[in-house]
Amino acid sequence: MDITTCAQKCKDASTSMAALPATIKNQALEHIKDVLLKNGNRIAKHNTADIQKAKKDQLDAPLIKRLKFDSDKIAESCDGIDSLIKLPDPVGVTLKATLLDKGLELYKVSRPIGVIGVIFESRPDALVQIAALCLKSGNAVLLKGGSEAAGTNRILADLIHDAGVRSGLPDGWLVLLERRDQVTRMLALNDFVDLIIPRGSNAFVKLIMDNTLIPVLGHADGICHIYVDSKAEADMALQICTDSKCQYVAVCNAAETFLIHEKVAANFLPQLKKQMDKHGVTIYGCKKTCAIISCDQATQAHWQTEYLDYKVSVKVVGSLKNAISHINRYGSGHTDVIVTADKQRAVQFMDHTDTANAFWNCSSRFADGFRFGLGAEVGISTNKIHARGPVGLEGLMIYQWRLIGNGHKVADYSGPCARAYLHTELNLSFKGDA
Amino acid sequence: MDITTCAQKCKDASTSMAALPATIKNQALEHIKDVLLKNGNRIAKHNTADIQKAKKDQLDAPLIKRLKFDSDKIAESCDGIDSLIKLPDPVGVTLKATLLDKGLELYKVSRPIGVIGVIFESRPDALVQIAALCLKSGNAVLLKGGSEAAGTNRILADLIHDAGVRSGLPDGWLVLLERRDQVTRMLALNDFVDLIIPRGSNAFVKLIMDNTLIPVLGHADGICHIYVDSKAEADMALQICTDSKCQYVAVCNAAETFLIHEKVAANFLPQLKKQMDKHGVTIYGCKKTCAIISCDQATQAHWQTEYLDYKVSVKVVGSLKNAISHINRYGSGHTDVIVTADKQRAVQFMDHTDTANAFWNCSSRFADGFRFGLGAEVGISTNKIHARGPVGLEGLMIYQWRLIGNGHKVADYSGPCARAYLHTELNLSFKGDA
């Protein structure tokens, strides 16, 4: 099938998806779980073939590792589906209700977005997770996976799609694209795809963001800062710096830069150095930092580097204001932390820092959908509209205004004898049952 | 000043704008009102010059009419500012609060988006309105108006910017761009501009949407449908069709197509024809329509035409499902209405129609921020993310996650002795005062 036909099919399916009752969606999720568990051997066969081909093609070891989709991964995916089943249906929730006039009721009701385009690199677990998230939220999904995982993705997509259709989902609710050139063409399908979610490296996400008019939900860099204020408790600051940098270095919410107020630098930096040494973290310091502790000198480039490694940039700043300016200039609007005992300064930091997650006296590593208790994580967004920070199912939702009248006309509300609007809040939910 | 410098200045100002207390913002709005009222003569002088130049350049009469910004327009603009002052501050509202663990509190707090880019055609009132909306919502604003209104826009921008600065707003909170080539350059400023709001003709809005990676809030077409169901009360359907089409034809929420269920067509169409004749509306009907009433035959092109005029397309459809398919294919996702006495069919219509405003038994003309009681209207959006339908100040807002701990580290929540998260809802608002 040509890509426009695929996309049209997915778009057509999206209107039925949007109208599905919660029971059908949950049954479909149960069926998908069953089918994945029952077809472990078939999936393994395809996955082994993908891995063998990758080895033959001499792909990098970490990439081959990410390719693996064995019974443990299936079990993990099914756990994820289980927790989705337990969540309330995000579709059809009344967000606001207003009585415009007698018998004229306005409801703002949550609705699925429509067609979600997902482009992901090798990890096949991403396919299962995103398909389940789209299903639960009543969206149709157009998927494009990495060519290395082609066999695994194909069997997973077929199993999931068909289990869904057998449970009452419309044919075409999930469409897998398989040719590499289809990514570029998908990015141009603004008439059919309503939102793109990219899953992969920073460079990959950036490439997608820069090449489509379709809204993209996600983040490229995660250059997170810990600012140790003049009013910080040294021991707390030390622990937060260590956790934020060292607890797991390869993730977007790990700290990449420490900003240290000059009043506490002489005392704090040697302790920080000791901790970083203990964890094998290399420090790239500004001139002032280098004058206090022994470390490599940072260049301009270090302030805009996301290491994802046992490396950290350190800068001494003259004021809270300077710390904020540095973050707003070099940060990526992901997660930024202030350590201080002074609430007023903490609030000033949060009010002025242009970031999705503004934290006070805790680790940057908490920036995560699971830790936030969102139930399911669609991704982490550094966008300035729609959804920001860790995004749960609400990132896959929009709303519809539903106005219910009894023959009401605008003409009656204009001119010299115009009726007035009431505009009173209604404590009611939109009820779909007759 | 070069455009990147302008945009950088605006971006810098946006962080201070985001942190302003409500009192300062309301005082600034009061000052702006005063300044506009006191400088009526100066504004009139510049506006007269613009109009004289437009006449000399032989611009179209409707365009010249829209250019006019006299004392009536000033008074109208000031009324708008007054109603904005009365609205609660949209910044800093706690949208959600969760206790993650003892002493670890998560707040989702409303925040301004940042820099709003506004591109508008000749109407200078748009400048005043959008500047006031951005101010109230704590956003900085980069404006580009039509060259015909250059003098009026310049004096208005200067007066408004300076009145704001005198009230405590940061320098550069409002920047007016004046060269035509700057529109194209503004559309490429994704590092500085967070959201674009275009105000003008459909073609103008479409051009902007198709040429920028920056999110755009707005709508191009407004091809609104009225579907008269087999279960519709004929008299109510007639009144709704008439109000939706004829109450004011030149607006986006006016109806452009009537879909009539075949069971009622023979009875309903002659009555509809009589009403349309009375209002001087030309009907373009499908073959079946033409067989029942005398009218011009519609071609494929009519289903996708927004007339904004005394013209309407009429189609006989075989079922509710066909009506929905027609709307999903040819509609613009703006406003679509079902007239029916059957609730189940109305819900089916709303659940399956991909539209921002799904109405039941009332006129499409109600799709409007004022009528919805939103307090202020930023625009009407047909987007599938962020904001949809009539958009109030919340369209200029995003949120920030604020996590407040007491030295909390992620390491304590992992491994064999991991602490568990509580994830209990907090009935608290984030308080900024120390």
Explained architecture:
Two copies of one chain form a homodimer. With 434 residues, chain A is of the alpha/beta class. Chain A has two domains: 207 residues, 3-Layer(aba) Sandwich (Aldehyde Dehydrogenase, Chain A, domain 1), CATH 3.40.605; 149 residues, Aldehyde Dehydrogenase, Chain A, domain 2 (3-Layer(aba) Sandwich). The first copy, chain A, has a seven-stranded parallel β-sheet with strand order 10-9-11-8-7-12-13, with helices on both faces. Chain A has a four-stranded antiparallel β-sheet with strand order 16-2-1-17, with no helix packed on it. In chain A, strands 5-4-3-6 form a four-stranded parallel β-sheet, sandwiched between helices. In chain A, helix 7 links the parallel strand 4 and strand 5. In chain A, helix 3 packs antiparallel against helix 7. At the A-B interface, helix 1, helix 10, helix 15, strand 13 and strand 16 of A face helix 1, helix 10, helix 15, strand 13 and strand 16 of B.
